[in-house]
Amino acid sequence: MTDQMKQQYINLGISEEVLSFGEQILADLRPRFDSIDETAEFNQLKVIAAMQKAKVSEACLLGTTGYGYGDIGRETLESVYAEIFKAEDALVRPQITCGTHALTLALMSNLRPGDELLSPVGKPYDTLEEVIGIRPSKGSLAEYGITYRQVDLLPDGSFDFEGIKAAIRPQTKLVTIQRSKGYATRRTLSVESIGELISFIKGIRSDIICMVDNCYGEFVQRIEPTQVGADLVVGSLIKNPGGGLAPIGGYLAGTKECIENAAYRLTSPGLGKEVGASLGALPSLYQGLFLAPTVTAAALKGAIFAANLYEKLGFEVRPNGLEDRYDIIQAIVLRKPEALIAFCKGIQGAAPVDGFVTPEPWDMPGYDAQVIMAAGAFVSGSSIELSADGPMKEPYAVYFQGGLTFPHAKLGMLKSLQEMKDAGLVEIP
Ligand SMILES: *Cc1c(COP(=O)(O)O)cnc(C)c1O
After folding, report:
1. What's the whole-model pTM score?
2. What are the residue boundaries of the structural domains of the chain, listed by start?
3. How many Å apart are CA 350 and CA 11, to the nearest integer?
4. How far apart are CA 326 and CA 213, in angstroms?
5. Atom 12 in ligand 1: residue holding the nearest Cα
6. Given ligand 1 and candidates 100, 218, 237, 379, which is best to mutate, with the most ligand atoms within 8 Å of its CB?
7. Is there a contact between 174 and 110 (Cβ–Cβ < 8 Å)?
8. Which fold has domain 3-42+290-422?
9. pLDDT by residue (tens digit) across 177-221?
10. For the chain, how long is the longest CA-to-CA vector?
11. Separation of alpha carbons 384 and 244, rounded Å
12. Considering only the top CATH level, what class is 63-280?
């Protein structure tokens, strides 16, 4: 590293010791980073080919107001998504407010009273508990007479095929498969293993709708779950596919029928996809999608760097430094409350927005312990931007993800380590 470069880091508060330890770790990661870059290249070409095939034009970036009839930009963007996911159709809208909303839409539109929903991969993401009615809530699926069953993964993380077979009943209409582990401790599923699970389910009853919660997984691999049999994939635009530029939105891609049902639920029966003004959101939805493969690669490299950095310092990291990655989330078990606070301080201190702010633990509604969060994002709450959080309770694990560029993710990790070192919480070997 040149002296000029070193000076840049020193100006940002990184000591030579922390910097050189980081460089040592990075040196061993180069071959792995090359293979991530290759995946990004593959996916970049996939996105460009899809945009060209759909004939994206300057007129597509303009947007509409009011009812939004005949919004060519909206319709073209939806065909670009359908092409990328190799699906019959897609629904991509700024009116879908977040990932939970997109998943709610998929479930509520494709299930009817008397139907049963099955999760064969254990408990779904926290916010879905109220959607399903696992925790009672107004307007849940349970209130509409839609029942729910769950089959947990086996202790070794594999699918409980026997249990799944036994759980499939005549009223089982839709199976929901969460690709990312989210903030649970299980493994994230590869697209290939999701394919195996879908084949097994379709082998029992081919008419069961197989839906995948694709949050945090888009563009991590070269194929998406719709290419291994999923009828529907669902995700958030303020995660991977928005590339950090989308200011809001969610997407669904899948069979014509699943998408039509969802469109009728999002707007209204009879209107479906025909209405929904795109306002001024389209340029960032298109450009964000264009950037998404390389942005996802940057976030992945940041996660792998952090895993190896902290593993070398003796911390338990999940996934570990060597494991293959199927999403962008990294967990580090920090063991002490002061370490969790110092880590988050470092991430915040590396942010381009609100970098001067000190994060503090607070009583977040819905949690049984205080939570500390670090985020300095251009898009509020965006978790494709570098962000970290963790509950203030044993084992004091921090979960983090994102980084629109690798240099930013790298700085964040070095800052977190610097904070921990300055607080006397780690020894650098
Ligand atoms: C983020 C996430 C969601 C919910 O998305 P929000 O945008 O936070 O509502 C659902 N499932 C998984 C796996 C997620 O990571």
Report:
1. 0.96
2. 3-42+290-422, 63-280
3. 12
4. 13
5. 215
6. 100
7. yes
8. Aspartate Aminotransferase, domain 1 (3.90.1150)
9. 999 987 777 889 999 999 999 999 999 999 999 999 999 999 999
10. 69
11. 6
12. alpha beta
